[in-house]
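Sequence in, structure out. Go.
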Amino acid sequence: MDKLVLLVVLPLLAAFLMPVLARSSQVLARLSGLLVLLISITLVLNVWGEVDKQAISFAIGGYQPPLGVVFYIDQLSLLFALLIPVMVLIFWPWNRPSSIQEYSLMMLLTASASGLMLSGDLFNIYVFYELLAVASYGLVSVQVRQGQHPVVAWVASLRYLLLGSVGSVMMLLGIAIIYLQTGTLNLAQLSLLAPEALNNITGLSAFVLILVGLGVKAELFPVNTWVPEVYAGVSTRLSALMAGLLSKLAVIVIVRLLVLLFPQPEALHLMTVLGMLGVISGELVAWRAKDMTRMLAFSSIGQLGLVFIAFSLPGNIGLLAGFAIALHHLVVKPALFMLAGGWSGRLEKLSGMAQSSPYHVALFVLLAMSLLGVPPLPGFWVKLLLVMNLAVQTDPVYHFALAFMLLATVLEAAYLYRVVMLFYKKENHTHASSQHSLFDWITAIALAAVLLISVVQLPSVERKLVSMAYQSGNRLLYIHTVFANIGTPEARIDRMSPTDQAKQPLVSEPSIKEKAIKEDLVLGSAEQ
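Output:
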């Protein structure tokens, strides 16, 4: 399992070596990047079955936790460790000539994203988050949409940079507060200390700062104003990658911190309120949008709001709903962006498009139906799961969230129906023409195929998501896994914190089994 460190090392090494190789051979430099992505995928697949029942952790450099660099691998982190190179490979700039610097930035993005998913301490999470930000800023500035003036992309990149820098500072302040309160940045040790050290107004303030800092990438209201300008100004493939993958990485980090450090009602309520504001603001502006790409960008903001609402549900059922909605969005929205790349300009110009591009329009309708939640497509089941669990909550804030969600769905149906009606309008159809590249069309078809396969494999997908939610929500399992190699449970606690006697029952194996039985989401019932 230690070889998974290569998921970070190899792309990072390639990012710096590709410009050197390019001096001898441009082809060799580009092929080296593709080779690294294929190796990364192979590494993850080789260990895929090892974390189904038991998470794994390992220290790098010989220093045992909580002192050393720790990587934590469970079903969730391993899934995204696979999705990162796969998505980068899918949205590699195949369809246009690109500079070697652009390929290097893609490698840097791959390395930092993998490190972000696997890291087990706040310091390295911040470092990898900053590397991810640098890579995304650079890609936004160089991957200009065809027909778009470069100045537009540079201005959007500058706004993104400024807002992202403010978010990074806020995130760093939140981490500093946590360190001052606890004296450590190791997530497992912090999880032990959090009930006493962070379950207060100071800890909640740290969570707010980190939430806003990570929220820039996660398209969280109100730090998501960069989204429409960037998505409309950069290449289609980059906007699809950012909307589909990068936003989810930030969300997963937030959820990990929420489970381990801040399982407080106030933190959950904050996420619910910000999610509601994101849903309604994104869908309202998408309803008024006159351009396909901007409409999808604001729609993405609304969908990310739903993700935050889902994750704000207490217990493992919130994790289950959040993972389902996030993964559905990860498949559907990039495919829609791929289709939008060939339909530039105002929506009115798309009148009659179904006459000249019937297959493209049919694929758009399929994806839009799943986004709306039309049965039997996966979007129906993930929205039904969220609606049912919002409805059974006793806290009034979740009833408001349900109302916001239903209103947003009506708005979403209205503007998507309007677009479909434009596509099938018969007047002026001779003036409508599609400009999709072959690579964009193939990518959209491949993602739609994944969506349709998930319909057939729905029971298997459900079992996997339930297992992932159970494992990710088990705080005690995380602690036990990270400190499993440091002697007895008593010795582990003695090394971790001065409150060892009080903490000892939390990491002993019998205690973990007893606590797991009491989890509100029982794995066995789902398998039945």
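Check: Confidence is low (pLDDT under 50) at residues 487-528. The chain has two domains: 2-476, 477-527.
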